Amino acid sequence: MTATTSRLIVGPFNRVEGDLEVTLDIADGIVREARVTAPLYRGFEQILAGRPPEDALVIAPRICGICSVSQSAAAARALAAIAEVEPPPNGRLAADLVLAAENAADHLTHFVLFFMPDFARTVYAGRPWHEAALRRFAANASEASRVLVPARARFLHLMGLLAGKWPHSLALQPGGTTKSVDPGERVRLLAILAEFREALENVLFADRLEAIAALSSLSALEAWADAAPRDKGDFRLFLHISRDLGLDRLGHGPGTFLSHGSFGLWPAGVVMGGKAQPYDPAQVAEDLTHSWMDGPTQPDADKEGAYSWCKAPRLDGRVAEVGALARQVVAADPLARELVAASGGAVRDRVVMRMIELARLVIAMEGWVRQLRPAEPFCVESPLPLRGAGIGLVEAARGALGHWMTIEAGSIRSYQIIAPTTWNFSPRDAAGIPGPLEQALAGTPVQPGETTPVAVQHVVRSFDPCMVCTVH
Amino acid sequence: MSALAADDVGLVRALERFNIRLLWHPSLSEESGAEALAVLQGAADGSIRVDALCVEGAVLTGPNGTGRFQLLSGTGKPVSAWVSAIAARAGVVMAVGSCAAFGGIPTATSNPTDAVGLAYAGAEAGGLLGAGFRSRAGLPVVNVAGCAPHPGWLVETLADLALGGFDAGRLDSLGRPRAFADHLAHHGCGRNEFYEFKASAAKPSDRGCLMENLGCKATQAPGDCNIRRWNGYGSCTDGGFTCINCTSPGFQDPGAPFQETAKLAGIPVGLPVDMPKAWFVALAALSKSATPPRVRTNAHADHVVVPPARKPPKTP
Questions:
Q1: Distance from CA of B19 to the nearest CA of A (A)
Q2: Do strands A6-10 and B77-78 pair parallel, antiparallel, or not at all (unpaired)?
């Protein structure tokens, strides 16, 4: 710390899901240290304890209005592990469709409404792309949102059909899904996907989804960006902005990536220092040193040295980043591996892999709908034993989500949840090691006079945080 | 977040049609940090006019009444203090969702955060703002209940307020807009024929009525869910699962597992609200004895096994 160090407290943080405060120590126009505070405690783990096990299917999704299905899926999988049942193929496909729809919708919402509007700010007036960014992304009035928000809403008709509604469905059960699909409904699902594909291909990508999904190297990505004028497709506009602002050099993460694996498309695993290794949930522990927590579920608002309600999950003692980038790095996607080889994971890389994953998800969903077999079962019964323990691992849009559940005498004895943003926005641990966002913010430039530094906002939003899940 | 898909055009455009402009929205506005605080400060001190304050989520008053479980980022002050301050200036105060209305899910089990609704704690008037609270326009807190509420309930209530002439007569006894609360979730249920014949589902994904065994409370739950549908095609019962009466206070602690029907001597405890029990039992017994085999068979399958009979065409 030098004598010129100043402290800036930034909050409330807009266009992230939930409540976030960031404390920055700044010297010579650079963030030296960051502390990330989740200022809300919710007590869901306490609420779940003592209840009938299946009540988790009602309570857990209501942790969050944007990751609702992911929470639902994790609860259903934990119960399925205890009941030792597996859904029939139709049930697995329908549940995957519902989860993929949430992930895809979240990726789109993040890009159009949460992340990109910052480039329309007046601080960027004069950049060659600013006029296009203003037109395409200005908050509440953008051309992009006028097309893509309705497209998202109509895409969520898939939720109406398969899950009754979104958010907060009970359609995902341990033994499968409650809604069967008849041949007419299967056609309607394909029609919904076709309409969504059209909007993505016309507006977001200005290209076929297959062309985006196939981008497999940095040079291919750069060549695609240069293949048309910069405002042809919102993804291309982002790539040009990113190049101009050096977003590939902003917001370096910890370089360790964790994924629970998803849809049978992307396997579970860990990548640490560029090396792949298997994921073992038993290596996950929550450090409470700087959390206002007295025990796994007991709050202590007066705790010395604490600065967040968020706990600090660590993987064998290591800080890990989760999310679309982590998923694709772990899955050995060549582009994702090349992106992080240079940077360890930066703002650009998180956004790029989210967009590429969006294209891949929609393509996969079209295949899954075709595989549905009307008149074959969607659900099996899943009676629970009186005692047992199960883990439900899911990839939400924002990364690895886990539910750890034990039941005794037919009731929930303990319920532990580790959400994606709990990983990414965790506070320091006992060894004083900062969480991923705290690490990523160190080194971020701050312009003179900035009260809510715009580069800090890019770094924070690049993780697509969900604070309400974080502090369940 | 459900409101983001409002009317298939999104919240901002759905409100624009009625000249309603968002002063600030945590997920949609550009303002962040200091800029956002300036808006909230202006709303609290009256220098910015607020026609409607919409609050989502229960207000957490714990631990020990300090509100430290829920501080507004960047201010060190409890959210409860901000809500009270802005509510005192706002034309209308709206609780969006059952948490903001009645406390909802955070109050379940032991209510570990001492959560309350804006003007109710459960079914009891009071909450954060007190039973006697009236906004600048003379209205009690408008409770757009539901978990989540239908986006249409939010947009249409705001639009109705903007059009003028909205008085307390448009609200039911718990402050919910009667536009949706005068209906029951049961109205228009696609399982209607199974309900009529008491042909009941026994396990998840069965097509039968969900009331007798699987905990469905649609015959008691305020809401037009099955008349207007959700996300284009859906509703809870159409999605194959039970209505949990999420628009009502106390829904979070039903006293039995959510997906099981509490019964006394084999008869569901929660019968349709305004139906004499003896009549219900008598009618149920009668309709069960008259159930066509088609309905009985299909009630226990996840797809139509027996289609409706067709009369052979008359030959001249």
A1: 14
A2: unpaired
